[in-house]
Design a protein that fits this description.
Elements (H helix, E strand, L loop, with lengths): L1 E5 L6 H12 L3 E5 L4 E4 L6 E4 L2 E3 L6 E4 L6 H13 L3 E2 L3 H8 L1 H10 L7 E2 L7 H7 L5 E5 L8 E4 L2 H13 L4 E5 L7 E8 L2 E9 L14 E4 L4 H14 L3 E9 L2 E8 L5 H7 L3 H12 L12
Parallel strand pairs: 1-2, 1-6, 6-7
Antiparallel strand pairs: 3-4, 4-5, 8-11, 9-10, 9-11, 12-13, 12-15, 13-14, 15-16
Helix pairs in contact: 1-9, 2-3
């Protein structure tokens, strides 16, 4: 098979592992920087240009999108162009944008009765007291909608602190979510790596002492963890509702069961492979081998 990986850098761990896994299974691989692609949008023969090359519907058998949050709009436009050309995309453009929109994804999960932390969203500073009340008061978590890897996430331990942080963010005209603080999680969460309809690897991430965020980029640690049946079902269901074939679902263990924090459309491989010793990249390539067919991409999920 001819496989394209949409990634800004081939030196990134996840991109490198996908290249290695694909080549070890006899496939040809190209890494394309999505920002260097431009699109010829026509009704008879849509194509993608990359430097001096032109790619049509016969160039690649499959595309693996590794679209960073900062280039979501243009990156998903490139994925969508491949879809218009009939090329199989592991994660489709609609699913990526659905998962990347934190508010929309939580609304979808809520609609389908998937457990999530109590969450409130507002635009007017006059509603701050209501926001804090609806998530059970302080302490509470305040998140930038555009934040990634734990950036733009604040724990407000008192009502006064929450009011000040929310006022500051609103004054900057940034969109935020306010969520309940799950104290019993003790600064840890679960990363469930879903491929197809199966959790292929899972790890527990623990934040350093004094840190409620468990992101590995924030200095957290990770170890292999065995999921409960409920946690496994929740992760698979959340990924399915987003319409993703490959995803990283982040869960909190709460007294009322697993709660979904986020569904990631381009989950990193380094942490999960290091913690679990699982060949995650190889399992992604195996999924492509079993599912890639021309014009098979279609809108999945809900919302």
């Amino acid at each position: 098979m001819n496989i394209a990986i949409l990634s800004r850098k081939r030196s990134l761990y996840s991109t490198g592992r996908l290249i290695e896994a694909a080549k070890s299974r006899g496939h040809a691989v190209r890494v394309l920087d999505p920002l260097r692609c431009f699109m010829d949008i026509t009704s008879d023969s849509p194509s993608i240009h990359y430097n001096e090359e032109e790619f049509d519907q016969n160039t690649f058998d499959a595309v693996i999108p590794r679209i960073g949050a900062s280039i979501t709009f243009y990156g998903t436009a490139v994925v969508r162009q491949f879809e218009m050309m009939g090329v199989y995309c592991v994660n489709e453009s609609v699913a990526i944008t659905r998962a990347r929109d934190k508010l929309r994804s939580l609304q979808i999960l809520s609609k389908h009765k998937v457990g999530i932390p109590a969450t409130a969203f507002a635009n007017n500073p006059d509603d701050i007291n209501g926001l804090i009340r609806e998530v059970g008061g302080a302490p509470c978590v305040i998140k930038l909608l555009e934040g990634t890897q734990g950036i733009g996430v604040v724990l407000a331990e008192t009502k006064k602190a929450a009011e000040s942080v929310i006022q500051a963010f609103m004054g900057l005209r940034t969109n935020i979510l306010v969520q309940e603080f799950i104290e019993e999680a003790s600064g840890s969460d679960l990363r469930c790596f879903v491929v197809g309809n199966k959790v292929i690897a899972s790890m527990l991430r623990q934040g350093p002492e004094g840190e409620f965020r468990s992101n590995l980029h924030r200095g957290g640690s990770a170890r292999l963890i065995k999921l409960t049946a409920a946690e496994r079902r929740t992760a698979i269901n959340a990924s399915r509702l987003m319409g993703l074939n490959v995803s990283g679902v982040d869960l909190l263990r709460s007294d009322r069961g697993p709660l979904v924090m986020e569904v990631n459309s381009s989950p990193g491989l380094e942490g999960i492979e290091g913690a679990t010793r699982q060949d995650v990249a190889g399992l992604i390539i195996e999924f492509i081998e079993n599912n890639a067919q021309p014009s098979r991409t279609k809108t999945r999920g809900v919302g």
